[in-house]
Amino acid sequence: MKMLLEMKVKGLTLDPVTSTPIVILKDVDGKTALPIWIGLMEASAIAMELEKVQLSRPMTHDLIRNILGTLHIRLSKIVVSDLRDNTFYASIYLDLGDGKEQVIDSRPSDAIALALRTSSPIFVDQVVIEKSRKTDTPLRSSEGETAEERKKRLEELLEKLSPEDFGKYKM
User: Fold this and answer.
1) Residues 25, 33 contacting (CB under 8 angstroms)
2) CB of 11 closer than 8 Å to CB of 26
């Protein structure tokens, strides 16, 4: 049985090494954070919803929300369900009514953008949290690296950063 952890979007930032956008999810108790590297367009869609920016015409995630509403289909939740080969996977759970449910495969960034627009809960499978801890990023220790070496490497990385590297959305 899957162990799901409810999370909220804490914010957006940029990877200091690759300048790739990262959406930060944090559990409702504030104990666990999950960074997910996403595309620029998806980061923009998430940022626009976080800031409640209203455009004159619907963007893709707004259009999907409008289609679901018109068809009386409720987005009941999204689940970040797996992490394989440094790629996150998610599912969108649709309540079709009369006890019927449809599960749609999605990129986490699109699922998150849609969940924000529909005020739907965001869940992460505990297995994803565990796998993400083992993923190699510049912020994680390298095998055989001493605490002093890690500290020095992180200090060098942080010295190269400017406040603009993190954008408007900080943790």
Assistant:
1) yes
2) no
Distance from the first to the final alpha carbon of the chain: 31
75-84, 107-116, 120-129, 141-150: least confidently modelled range: 141-150
82: domain CATH number?
3.10.690.10
- Number of structural domains (the chain) is 1
Q: In the sheet where 100-106 sits, what is the strand order?
A: 33-37, 21-27, 4-14, 122-125, 74-84, 87-97, 100-106
In this structure, is residue 171 part of a structural domain? no
pLDDT digits (tens, 9 = 90+) for 126-149: 999 999 887 655 544 445 556 666
Interatomic CA distance for residues 65 and 72, integer angstroms: 10
Residue 29 belongs to some domain of the structure = yes
Q: Dihedral, CA atoms, 115, 88, 133, 123, nearest 10 degrees?
A: 30
Alpha carbons 118 and 66: distance in angstroms, whole number: 10
Say whether 114 sits in a helix, a strand or coil.
Answer: helix
What domain range includes position 87? 4-166
Bridging pattern class, strands 74-84 and 122-125: parallel
Cα separation, 124 vs 141, whole angstroms:
24
* 6, β-bridge pairs: 123
Q: How many residues does the chain have?
A: 171
Is residue 79 situated within a structural domain? Answer: yes
